[in-house]
Amino acid sequence: MNFGDFIVQFLMYIIIFGLFAAVFFLVRSLVIKDPVNSSRVEEKLDRIIELLEKDRKE
User: Fold this and answer.
1) What is the spatial distance between Cα 39 and Cα 41, in angstroms, rounded to a whole number?
2) How far is CA 25 from CA 12, 17, 34, 35, 54, in A?
3) pLDDT, tens digit, for every residue of 1-44?
């Protein structure tokens, strides 16, 4: 095997690994951002429920 062939294969493995890593971190960042938004929604829903309960009692 030529030394040049080894270099080309090594670079291709690095590129393939980089693509998998990029997809992994992209999906991970999308999944991590969702709980922040859902906590805001939950806080708003809790506030609405409190106001509705307050209106029922009155």
Assistant:
1) 5
2) 20, 12, 15, 16, 45
3) 688 999 999 999 999 999 999 999 998 888 776 555 667 778 88
